[in-house]
Specification:
This protein is α+β, with helices and mostly antiparallel strands and about 350 residues long. About 45% of the residues lie in helices and about 15% in strands. It is built from 13 helices and ten strands. Strands 7-3-10-9-8 form a five-stranded antiparallel sheet, with helices on both faces. β5 and β6 form a beta hairpin. It is elongated.
């Protein structure tokens, strides 16, 4: 276990390196921080930190930089989450609060995260499988053609066209709409199949084929066989940190273009609480020079999706963690109120 003094030396090295982008020497630490010991003692502490793999010497200069292991210890034991200022919180609330629909909420969330953290931001759309039904609308487009519109508690809207086996009148359509909503509104998606399994049998014989077709389409929508959707922005921010990537930024940008990679990254985040993956903790080879800060968000106690940022390991962890957590909280509030 490291002594408290050596932990303070590590904290100072991380803070200075993140702030200055320059390797940190013992003289700079003595001048910038009140560590209460001599430069010789600090040099000894730095040597011990280097021996244990928390800092490294990038070249022949006297300075040291944190390693992935050093950043991990900093995040786990030394870094508090930096709260946003009142003006920042008001700006977030106003910006997200004026969104007109779910797509706009997600787009604005990406923009906010990129502006607050100066990193690349990734936001996953709320998962249908974790949602509840707010309303099912049925619209007649032709005598034997309908549109089904499914609206979730998170504001997500799914539309499906339905070709009916026979003409379906407005009276029957209104009856089906009312009975369907009375059974499924406010219920979890996982519960819907059981709730509607005998609904077709309650209709007249000539309407059962169409009712069964509508129910089959609804259940297919609930299963959500399509890929999860997400939005990414701010990858150009990473080009400002070109020197933070050992060889080239290209593998990072290529990894961020792969939706499967991004979904896996977000999937590793905890449902509640912030998850920080540092450097080689990221399994994808293209992201081993980056850190990922992610968290779940939702309209209630359960997360319906994840959001986060990707940047170099030389990251302002307290500020980034604070921004990600605050934005997730506001997005959850907006979904709850929508």
């Amino acid at each position: 276990m490291l002594s408290e003094r050596r932990l303070e030396v590590l904290r100072a090295i991380v803070q200075d390196y993140v702030g200055t982008e320059e390797p940190v020497g013992s003289k700079a630490l003595t001048e910038r921080h009140s560590l209460g010991v001599s430069p010789a003692t600090i040099r000894n502490d730095m040597a011990a930190l280097e021996d244990e793999g928390f800092i490294a010497q990038p070249h022949t200069s006297a300075g040291r930089i944190p390693t992935d292991k050093g950043y991990r210890l900093f995040v786990d034991r030394l870094a508090g989450v930096k709260p946003l200022s009142s003006p920042e919180r008001r700006a977030i609330q106003n910006f997200l609060g004026s969104a007109v629909d779910l797509d706009d909420v997600v787009a604005r969330t990406v923009r906010l995260l990129t502006q607050l953290t100066r990193q690349a931001a990734v936001v996953q759309y709320p998962s249908l499988t974790r949602s509840t039904v707010r309303h099912v609308e049925l619209l007649s487009l032709a005598p034997a053609r309908l549109m089904l519109v499914l609206i979730t508690d998170t504001g997500r809207v799914e539309q499906r066209m339905i070709d009916c086996p026979a003409p379906f009148g407005e009276t029957s359509l209104a009856d089906l709409r009312a009975r369907l909503n009375s059974r499924v509104v406010g219920r979890r998606f996982a519960d819907v199949p059981q709730l509607v399994q005998d609904l077709a049998e309650s209709f007249e014989q000539e309407d059962r084929g169409t009712v069964s077709t509508v129910l089959a389409t609804l259940l297919e929508t609930l299963v959500e066989e399509t890929e999860e959707r997400l939005m990414i922005g701010g990858t150009s921010n990473l080009t400002r940190f070109g020197h933070d990537f050992p060889l080239t930024i290209r593998p990072v940008l290529e990894a961020l273009e792969e939706q499967v990679v991004l979904l896996k990254l977000l999937g590793e985040a905890q449902e509640s609480g912030i998850t920080v993956r540092i450097g080689h903790e990221n399994a994808h080879e293209g992201l081993t020079s980056t850190s990922v800060v992610a968290v779940g968000y939702g309209s209630g106690d359960e997360a319906v999706a994840k959001l986060g940022v990707v940047g170099p390991t030389r990251m302002d962890y307290p500020g980034t963690m604070g921004a990600v957590r605050a934005v997730a909280r506001y997005v959850g509030q907006i979904l709850a109120e929508s």
